[in-house]
Amino acid sequence: MMRSLMRGGLRPSFKTTKQLQRRWCSDEEREEMEYDVVIVGGGPSGLSTAIRLKQLAAEEDRELNVALVEKGSMVGAHILSGACIEPHSLNELIPDWKEKGAPLKTQVTHDEFTILRKNGHTTVPGILMPPSLHNHGNYLASLGGLCAWMGEQAEELGVDVFPGFAAADAVYNSDGKLTGIVTDDKGISKTGEKKDVYQQGMILRAKQTVFAEGCRGSVSKKLFEKYNLRSDCEVQTYGLGIKEVWEIDPSKHQEGLVRHTIGWPVTAAEGHMNTYGGSWMYHMGDGKVSLGFVTGLDYKNSYTRPYMEMQKWKTHDYISSVLEGGKCIGYGARTLSEGGLLSLPKLTFPGGLLVGDTAGFLNLPKIKGTHTAMKSGMLAAEALYDDIFKGKETEQIPDGEEVATYHQRFKESWLHKELHQVRNVRQVFAKNFWAGVAYTGVTELITKGKEPMNLKHNHEDHACHLPIADCKEIEYPKPDGVITFDLLTNHSRSQTDHEGDQPAHLKPKVWSDAADIDLAKFGGTLAKLCPAGVYEYPEKDGKQDLSISAQNCLHCKACDIKCDNINWTVPEGGGGPNYDASM
User: Fold this and answer.
1) Taking the model in full, what pTM does it have?
2) Any catalytic annotation for residue 25?
3) How far apart are CA 232 and CA 228, in angstroms?
């Protein structure tokens, strides 16, 4: 069962109900727990929502029952970012965070922005760098470590935090209004039978449910369709970030140094067709370096392998000279929503609302989403509390109300102003990468976002790649085991662990399309794309067919984005990567 709730104060009420199981077709009684607010996801946006709600309730001396479910084995286990963290939102949420021991210790001391060529590089003078790439006052840290600390702060305020429990589906009343979630069933075999360790998921009922699932949330994407939340916005576009953490030679370590690069290897000479991409290298504390490469998932060349772009990038002298003599100690991958302001969906619906990367609050030119995610959660909490709970007894509040003021609060905030200024940047990059670089400088330094136009995102990422026959093959280096690594060696550094005997959570909508379309037409996008080696096309009896090793999944969800034949659903809660505090 869920972790004990006996911490004193009011307890959620319990009841049972009949609910169709999400993944296994059996109709049986489920236990229910009732809360005022349920939050799905223990990232920066969900935790900020929880903390702000409890702060507001405390100001009125009100008991507000708030639960947060997190599918990772612990808060922070599934969190991955660079991370160069802007503390703006944290200053607002927890002004005394330094005194409370937040794990932000390494301040940025110097910024470098470099254009790589195959056999050289040019570092842009600081005076010519756009403001978004100046990181003075920011901190280099593990976002997972920060979220773990925020989880402790939430619990101290009385939030019930449930790590290891995934939101499997949404729950609705007879009017179609959201009334909560159902958590995952555990202990179901691959064949759909209950094992001895079977543990039934629970229904968490709430007056309001906040979805903070992160990029491409498995329940949120259903809500987009049910409530038509994307009808008045541009399509979303995504990037796939591959990250490593290294311990490097102390003589090369420059604590507080931030480096970003663009250019090689995602250039036309290498076979790319205007692929969006870039990198980071952050010199953290304790002699560690965080480095990674992001590839836009609207890439056109079907030979593209995002994992190998990262490995190829590391062979450049500008990068390898730092890594030589060091040791790779961590690996991970995740997708991020890059579309910006114009790709934000409607943020509210009857009974719930969206925050963080679930909606897509990333500031792309800044290469930052933590402070924006946190602020979205704070704004959501303030709107939710004032609209639904303030001055009312819980019994007086009907189910499925819509939080009317969230969008307006967002429009009046510094967050909207920040995102509005750069609302067209990703669209220009999609037309021409170097035009995007120039436009970013112009809009940040001169026009400040006052351009009269709103540009469109023309295609969803899954519709962008070309047939393999129309693409130039891209050459990648053979892993040397020193600077570059084969995928499975690196994957072992993610500490990924799933229960092996469970139904696959990666579901082809039409199995035959994998071989007949993805392999035959595009050369096996799934196998090239996945940063965890989940998908392969082995040959059997003279024919290749799709093979899925779901236990390897890093929960990046790139397959769900780039291949519209794959539906990513949650596995048993607690499974997946286990990123430690160094990540």
Assistant:
1) 0.94
2) no
3) 9
Peptide bond into 404 cis (omega under 30): no
C-alpha to C-alpha distances, 332 to 80, 276, 382, 492, 555, nearest whole angstrom: 7, 20, 34, 10, 10
Among 84, 328, 556, 563, the active-site one is 556
| Amino acid at position 469, single letter | A
Minimal CA–CA distance to 501: which of 441, 535, 451, 551? 551
* Torsions phi, psi for 250 (to 5 deg): -55, -30
CA distance 550 to 229: 30
Omega before 508 within 30 of 0, i.e. cis: no
User: 376 near 361, Cβ under 8 Å?
Assistant: yes
Per annotation, catalytic residue among 147, 215, 471, 553: 553
- Is 30 tagged catalytic? no
Runs of H (alpha helix) within 162-227 = 220-226
Helix, strand and coil content of the chain, in percent to the nearest 5, comes to 30, 25, 45
Q: Is 553 one of the annotated active-site residues of the chain?
A: yes
Instruction: From 102, 44, 139, 42, select the one nearest 369 (Cα to Cα).
Output: 44
Kindly report, residue by residue over 525-581, the tens digit of the pLDDT. 999 999 999 999 999 888 999 999 999 999 999 999 999 999 999 999 999 999 998
**Cis bond before residue 345 (omega within 30° of 0):** no
**What size, in residues, is the chain?**
583
For residue 465, pLDDT beyond 50? yes
Place of tokens 């990674």: 292
**Helix residue ranges, H only, 422-518:** 425-431, 433-442, 487-491, 511-513
pLDDT at residue 5 greater than cutoff 80? no
Is 10 a residue whose pLDDT tops 90?
no
Q: Which of 147, 471, 530, 563 is catalytic?
A: 530
Nearest Cα to 133, choosing from 82, 97, 93?
A: 82
Q: What are phi and psi of 32, to 5 degrees?
A: -115, 150
> Is residue 81 flagged as an active site residue?
yes
Is residue 367 within 8 A of residue 426, CB to CB? The reply is no
Query: Catalytic residue at 370?
Result: yes
Band of residue 6 on the pLDDT scale cut at 50, 70, 90: very low
Could you tell me what percent of the chain has a pLDDT over 70?
95
Q: Give mean pLDDT, residues 497-502.
A: 94
Check 295, 559, 563, 569 and give the catalytic one.
559
Specify the residue for token string 């195959």: 118
Average pLDDT over residues 175-193: 95
Of the residues 22, 259, 334, 423, which is catalytic? 334
Our answer to whether residue 230 is catalytic in this structure is: no
| SS3 assignment, position 406 | helix
- Give the pLDDT mean for 70-90: 97
Q: β-strands 352-354, 348-349: how paired?
A: antiparallel
Spot the catalytic one: 73, 261, 370, 525.
Answer: 370
Catalytic residue list contains 73? no
Catalytic site residue from 45, 73, 81, 295: 81
Measured distance CA(290)–CA(281) in Å, rounded: 6
Q: Are strands 120-123 and 110-117 parallel, antiparallel or unpaired?
A: antiparallel
